[in-house]
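Quick check before the chapter quiz. The format below is the same one you will see on the exam, so make sure you can read both the input and the output lines.
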Amino acid sequence: MTSLAVTNPGSLIQSVDWVAIAPPLIAALAALAVLVADLFLPAGRKKALGRLAAAGLALALIALLPLVHGHARSTFCLRNVTGATDNAACSYVADHFTLVFQLLALGGALITALLSIHTVDEEKLPGGEYWFLLLSSATGAALLPASRDLATLIIALEVVSLPAFALVGLRRDGRGAEAALKFFLSSVTATAVMLLGVSFVYAATGSLHLSVIADGLAHAPAQLKTLAEAGAALTLVGFAFKVAAVPFHFWLPDTYTGSPIPIAGYLSVVSKAAGLAGLALVTTIAFHTYAHTWGLALAVLAAVTMTVGNVAALRQRGDTPHSAVRLLAWSSIGQAGYLLVPLAAAGYAGATEPIGATVAYALIYGVVNLGAFAVVAVVARTAGSRLDDYRGLFARRRWTALALAFFLLCLAGLPPGVIGLLGKVVVFRAAIDAGLGWLAVVMAVNVVIALYYYLVWTAKLFAPAGADVAEVVEHRLPAPLTATLGLTALVAVVLSVAPELVLQVVGGSLF
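Here is the expected output.
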């Protein structure tokens, strides 16, 4: 009979680095606080839940500050009976990669919360459920980039996704229910495929920790190589779905148009960032052995994704309902293609340095895209959600029109949106340095295609209102909505004036 006793049982207990896990933990505690407060607050005071949620996200962002300087911190690591720690087998690591994506996730969730305060009130959405679900999803988005084993990665990915299904369907109309159903069914299918892939990888390597998987794949027996390769391919499907890479994009346009506008913005930035972080981790760490294979696959995926997204955005008509949101939806698919380019370059280069370009571009895209959705929320309150409803916006709301014009120019990569231009240059450089000249050419063609629809929308802002545009009575904007517009515009301008604040990510070490 084998004895399960150990000489020193206390050595199996490890302390938790509470500072390292503070950002997602604070967001989770804020979600619980909102849920409990909703039970006791009278109906007339439930507006305070939005301020409580925003405060919790702000505290989670502040909790990143102690982690900025110094070495990477890890916790939940495997220990042997002597108490020695294998740092390569940790489930949670707070390194520079983690901190940047947590900044993007929590910052994007905070902007979404500010944007949502008036939406919850005006559309009569259930406040307690809305704020709890938003904070829960943000918790998963903050946990995912720190995850270093496949089990934690999948759990974090589902914590991002499951509340998002409900958030999409909170609108009590047919469009919201249909959008949530499409989102749910496609996501469940992608998750099932990914879980099958994870089981194959575990069978081939005997571990779920990313670093251990990398070593196991490099020394896998010949009879298990096919199983391991199939597992790696299937595992990438779930993350490609979250990034909305073609052909896993079909759910996105209808989901965005059926969602409350702040949630559409949240999905376009925070949910996409979570999928991007997971994709970067599993490819560059766990599946490093197959770098050239997944590098080529991601390069093809990037080229197809940016082309399909931009061509579909080009076809959006200005007089159709919800065409503004649909254009941003297809645009976000095109932007996802750009974000995949440095990941493909990392596969070809066999190094993690190109990932810095993806991280920098994701930060830029997150700020300006949320700002664009904030303007869409402003215009939808009084005029509508068609592209034609933006005609003459400069005459009605001068600063709102200027903000949207600046956001669109950043997305297009044109001055004065300097930060958008530099972001695209960084992505181009990553492709060229890795020898992916053909992908750089495809990206250049797509940037030109995208220029057309971004500039057409920008021109509408300054054109005289047409006869088919109804007379619009503009009202004073709610303070949270004004704050959202001002915050996103200010950050975009500051980054254009001082782009080194973001671009320094490209030159530093992330892992």
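If your answer matched, good. The radius of gyration is 23 Å.
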